[in-house]
Amino acid sequence: MKNHISNLSGTFTLINGVEMPYLGLGVYLSKNGQEVANAVRWALETGYRHIDTAAIYRNESGVGQGIKTSSVPREDIFVVNKVWNSDHGYDRTLRAFDRSLEQLQLDYLDLYLVHWPVPGEYRDTWRALEELYKQKKVRAIGVSNFLKHQLEDLMESAEINPMVNQMEFHPYLVQQDLIDFCQQHQIQYEAWSPLMQGKVFELPEFQQLADKYHKSIAQIVLRYDLQKGVITIPKSAKRERIISNADIFDFELSASDMDFLDAMDRNHRYGPDPDNFEWSVVL
């Protein structure tokens, strides 16, 4: 699944052959309207080709505006969206998908994810994603925040296995067993919150690595993700940060530094636990 990590236009190949850009822009907490539209447009101008949003972010129309006002053709952009917890179930998911397309002003999505594994609901939700995939309304389907036992349960009844699993991932939460399981089943692993909600900037170990490679702390972490074979989507609404986050293709972390970062794992979450989540909560 891993290809050479050499430039911003690079991709990892999903099990169905779809090429998914390995670096993208996340838009969680970016305000709808001009703020998120600008962020999307700046990212596309910089060379990003992967934009990740979700219904619960409430900024889909701004994301759509950013895509529309950019000079990049739609077919060159990998757009990801997610079905929220209150929209689980077969029929509700299909309706939620249509609403998202309408908000984004798009004819199809490149990847649609089940945002959280709502107990007793996600199997029916997954059937809806399979139907959308068969109808070619989406090029790939996957999940977010699914632990191993939830993936196993879903795959028992699934006709099509998830192609992606988007998880909280950073040096304090590596979950190597889950990565190994996903690789074994050809499920592409993807990171959210790669910068530990900003906490990474407080750790002296990262400053030392940044000094060693003459890079920023964020660039070290994002490079770590890609060398792990993990797609990553750092969020920013600032143009200079969007550009800086993409400047990670002129260096490589050594094997010993990769091992050092892996060894920082504390199984520590900054986001919710997929086994213990207030399913009705609005983030």
UniProtKB/TrEMBL annotation:
Designated name of the protein: Aldo/keto reductase
Family, per entry: Belongs to the aldo/keto reductase family.
Keyword GTP-binding tagged: no
Source organism superkingdom: Bacteria
Record key words, sorted: NADP, Oxidoreductase
Residues annotated as binding substrate: H115
Chain positions of site Lowers pKa of active site Tyr: K82
Domain called NADP-dependent oxidoreductase: residue spans: 30-265
Active site per the UniProt annotation: Y57
GO molecular function, one term: oxidoreductase activity, acting on the CH-OH group of donors, NAD or NADP as acceptor
